[in-house]
Design goal:
It comes from Rhodocollybia butyracea. Keywords: NADP, Oxidoreductase. This is NAD(P)-binding protein. This protein is an alpha/beta fold. The chain has one domain: NAD(P)-binding Rossmann-like Domain (Rossmann fold), CATH 3.40.50.720. About 50% of the residues lie in helices and about 10% in strands. The strands form two sheets. The protein has a five-stranded parallel beta sheet with strand order 3-2-1-4-5, sandwiched between helices. Helix 4 runs parallel beside helix 5. The protein is globular, with a radius of gyration of 18 Å. The structure holds NADP nicotinamide-adenine-dinucleotide phosphate (NAP). The site of NADP nicotinamide-adenine-dinucleotide phosphate (NAP) has 30 residues, from helix 1. The site of NADP nicotinamide-adenine-dinucleotide phosphate has 30 residues, from helix 1.
């Protein structure tokens, strides 16, 4: 049976100080099973609010190098040895216009936050999860991607590519559950000043959270809704069988 969030004992959520990460962290903490929830972010005032809501709060900037990421993960495992799920929602979105000026530093930062930090967290949590799984405790790794991983948006090309990279990583690793939201109410677009325009189309955070939690409770491989679900079913789902086939072939190949 697919691992369900209903069996999770301790869930670490990055990006927990606003938007989707915050809503999911609060919803997970309110599950009947009452798992411990650890909310991670940079903004101290928001972390304080999480603490007041009964969530453990840890300050950490995921835009960092490998050594400090490893230090953070080791510290979390030591402090919360029960961690059996990570939900990786920290992310940023920047507009890039290739026909105008391109800021490569900004592109590298977006890639580091949206992709490299996810790869590094998975890498450093993996030995802990493997030993838990060997002892019979199923673990869940749930990176948040986006419908734009399936259909890239021309105004946020690097963001779309970063989410496509996370998506590709997930389907290749297969053991993972991942979350791909449509346009959802959050603070993601505040930096670019497009929040007002997008608020006319986005899915309200409460409606989205309910659907996402239900998917995590069922143990869906891909927790998707709205436009992201349509795009996933049309363009990505057919890949699943092919990836399994390739995995079988590579297992045969590596035995040789
Ligand atoms: N909203 C949507 O329409 C939508 C659609 C598809 C996918 N998504 C994805 O959903 C996830 C959450 O986004 P959101 O829409 O909820 O946006 P949001 O409200 O802006 O939340 C982003 C979160 O990421 C954290 N974060 C950003 N940079 C960080 C850093 N360097 N270190 C640590 N934490 C950092 C922020 O915390 P601090 O600022 O406190 O550090 C905040 O908690 C993202 O991965 C986003 O790409 C969103």
């Amino acid at each position: 049976m697919a691992p369900s969030i209903n069996n999770a004992k301790c869930v670490l959520v990055t990006g927990a100080t606003s938007g989707i990460g915050r809503a999911l962290a609060l919803a997970i903490a309110a599950l009947p099973s009452h798992p411990t929830v650890i909310g991670v972010g940079r903004r101290k005032d928001r972390l304080r609010e999480l603490k007041e809501a009964g969530i453990e709060a840890e300050e950490f900037d995921v835009n960092t190098d490998r050594a400090s990421m490893k230090g953070f993960v080791d510290e979390m495992i030591k402090k919360y040895p029960e961690i059996d799920m990570i939900l990786l929602a920290a992310g940023i979105q920047r507009e890039v216009h290739f026909k105008k000026e391109v800021n490569l530093d900004s592109i590298a930062t977006e890639l580091n936050i949206n992709y490299m930090s996810v790869v590094a967290m998975i890498t450093f949590f993996m030995p802990h999860f493997l030993s838990k799984a060997a002892a019979g405790q199923p673990c869940i790794i749930a990176p948040v991607t986006s419908g734009l991983a399936y259909i890239p948006a021309p105004w946020v090309v690097n963001y779309s590519a970063s989410k496509a990279a996370v998506h590709s990583l997930c389907i290749a690793l297969r053991a993972l559950s991942k979350i791909s939201p449509p346009l959802v109410e959050s603070e993601l677009h505040d930096v670019e000043g497009t929040t007002d325009a997008l608020s006319k189309f986005w899915v309200p955070i409460d409606a989205y959270t309910k659907e996402a939690i239900e998917g995590l409770q069922r143990g869906d491989d891909v927790v998707s809704s709205g436009f992201a679900k349509v795009a996933y079913e049309k363009f990505e789902k057919p890949k699943d069988g092919m990836v399994s086939e390739m995995a079988k072939r590579s297992a045969t190949h590596s035995k040789k």
